[in-house]
Write a structure and sequence with these properties.
The complex is a heterodimer of chains A (about 230) and B (about 325). Chain A is α/β, with parallel strands linked by helices. Chain A has helices at about 40-50, 85-95, 120-135, 150-165, 175-185, 205-225, and strands spanning about 1-10, 15-25, 30-35, 55-60, 70, 140, 170-175, 185-190, 195-200. Chain A has one domain (about 1-225): Rossmann fold. Chain B has 2 domains: about 1-125, no CATH class; about 150-310, no CATH class. The chains are: A alpha/beta (about 230), B mainly alpha (about 325). The interface of A and B includes residues 71, 81 and 96 of A.
Chain lengths: ~230, ~325
């Protein structure tokens, strides 16, 4: 069970966001995609999820990818006047799942309140609960730790490890490098539309060094401090 | 402060331009302004013609519209960026600007007392900016199949109460046509549930192909809209039973459902765009000549299938 991406390119008009991306995501692994804001991480995730058109090929060897994939956007959007419970019910209906939703309230969310009134962290937790209820094979999590409290961060980290044990494919992004080094098996550095570096656990430091060199040092140099 | 109002003007200009969905169906904003003025005039004239005590109800209605500017969330933004004095001035100007068209029409109707009271109240409510949108969870019977009817019902439940009240009045005064109007009103309200496209995520989540998805959406629309109109249908049949009335009630239900489905199909045919002008033309022509729906529905069913294939691969 794996996702194989070949020659993936994506442009918005003349603006090329992804260029010739080649990646493989295997079952039972957690893969992290790093890159600065606007480097194309979210676009890459949306292409894999089938939420964006693209050139190239994204293959999955265990059925229709879209129907087995859960996508957590950076800022999940909730329809107005919909309670947390109704949102989860909608996600269950979408995949023909019959379960007792209240039993699956992992983060103790106030499911009878309107989802639009939730805090940033609560919205993220609700969206994540929805993906877990769907029992997906693939999880794409765009900044899953953004805005969540410490307790929930611990739960999410444990959850990622549990999903890995269940042989799921997990792809995530985070701007906190330590979160990625703690959870991921592989890291991919996305820069200037391309994957410029790949690393496994033994060589994560090479990507960290590259990021420091590219983002921090270059930008500080530009300041021309004397 | 001047820049704030310039920005508000730009926002309005862009909103009118995007009314027909920007680049694809965009309309000239100045033409849009002219249409708005014309529609406002037509609405006001017929309001005074058809409504009793219009000189009282018209300014009250205008104050409700102006009061929408007093919503807490909107005003906390203005309060955060301007000092107290400027904040008061801005709110006063906003309310006065919005009062102008209503005041002009009241002057045209020579309702000078109404104008005076209306302007005074409009200025007064500009200083009250704490209206909060209620988070009270309105129960709905549609929880098993979110989302259009849950969202729509919670936003417009008071309109259904009005439709049921009209039915009651129709029975009390023995006016069958009024009851049929209430029935049509229910379908008009439910049509509105399908007026704005949802974010693509809410289509993408389904593990259905485009044809199955459209069928499911139609099924929900049929089931729930007929549920909402059932009380009126049964009441009218019970109190006004005759073959002619039965035919008219059945016909009203069929047409109501047909227009609802047309609206739904048009929404998905142009997804994610929202071509309000095209929709208005199609619906308008079909109202004038309902047999047109026999062609419109299959055409848009096929078009919506084709459009959604990109998302529901």
């Amino acid at each position: 069970m794996s996702i194989i991406i070949k020659s993936l390119s994506k442009s918005y008009g003349n603006n090329e966001v992804l260029k010739n991306i080649e990646l493989t995501f295997k079952k039972g692994t957690i893969s992290g995609v790093v890159g600065k804001n606007g480097s194309g991480k979210t676009t890459l995730f949306k292409c894999i999820a089938g939420l964006e058109d693209y050139n190239g090929n994204i293959g999955y060897d265990n059925g229709i990818l879209k129907n087995k994939l859960g996508f957590l956007p950076t800022n999940p959007y909730f329809l107005s006047k919909i309670t947390g419970f109704e949102y989860l019910q909608l996600l269950c209906n979408a995949r023909n799942i019959n379960i007792d939703i209240n039993d699956k309230n992992l983060f103790d969310l106030p499911l009878n309140q309107y989802a639009e009134t939730y805090s940033t962290g609560m919205k993220k937790k609700l969206a994540l609960t929805g993906l877990l209820i769907q029992n997906n094979e693939i999880y794409i999590l765009d900044e899953p730790f953004n805005g969540v409290d410490i307790q929930s961060s611990i739960i999410i980290t444990e959850l990622l490890i549990h999903l890995k044990k269940l042989n799921k494919i997990i792809i995530l992004s985070s701007h906190v490098f330590s979160i990625l080094t703690d959870t991921c098996d592989n890291l991919y550095y996305l820069k200037e539309n391309k994957i410029i570096k790949t690393a496994d656990r033994s060589s994560f430091y090479t990507i960290e060094n590259e990021i420091k060199k590219d983002i921090i040092l270059n930008n500080i140099d530009k300041m021309g401090l004397t | 402060m001047k820049y704030y109002f310039t920005l508000q003007y730009k926002r309005l200009y862009r909103r009118i331009f995007e009314f027909g969905n920007g680049d694809n169906y965009g309309i000239n904003p100045f033409l849009g302004f002219a249409i708005i003025v014309l529609l406002f005039y037509r609405f006001s004239v017929s309001f005074f013609l058809k409504i009793e005590y219009a000189e009282i109800i018209y300014p009250i209605m205008a104050l409700i519209i102006i009061g929408s500017l007093s919503v807490k969330d909107r005003n906390s933004f203005i309060r955060d960026i301007f000092d107290v004095k400027k904040n008061r001035k801005i709110r006063l100007f906003e309310n006065l600007i919005l009062s102008i068209p209503f005041s002009l029409f009241l002057i045209y109707k020579q309702e000078f007392n109404s104008v005076f009271i209306f302007l005074a109240l409009s200025m007064l409510i500009s200083q009250y900016n704490k209206i909060q949108i209620s988070n009270f969870i309105i129960p709905t019977p549609f929880y098993k199949k979110p989302f259009e009817f849950i969202v729509g019902f919670r936003k417009t439940f008071w309109l259904f109460l009005i439709a049921y009240l009209i039915t009651y009045i129709s029975i009390s005064v023995g006016n069958f046509n009024l009851g049929v109007f209430a029935l049509i009103l229910v379908y008009l309200i439910t049509m509105n549930f399908y007026s704005t496209p949802e974010p693509v995520f809410y289509i993408w989540i389904y593990s259905l192909n485009s044809e199955e998805f459209i069928k499911m959406k139609i099924k929900i629309a049929l089931l729930y809209s007929m549920f909402l109109s059932l009380l009126i249908t049964i009441s009218l049949l019970f109190f006004y039973f005759s073959i002619d009335n039965l035919i008219l009630i059945i016909l009203s239900n069929i047409l109501g459902v047909a227009f609802l489905i047309t609206n739904l199909l048009i929404k998905y045919s142009y997804f994610p765009s929202n071509p309000s002008i095209i929709k208005a033309i199609i619906i308008g022509l079909s109202i004038m000549f309902p047999p047109l729906l026999l062609f419109v529905i299959p055409y848009y069913k096929s078009l919506s299938n084709k459009t959604l294939k990109n998302i529901l691969k």
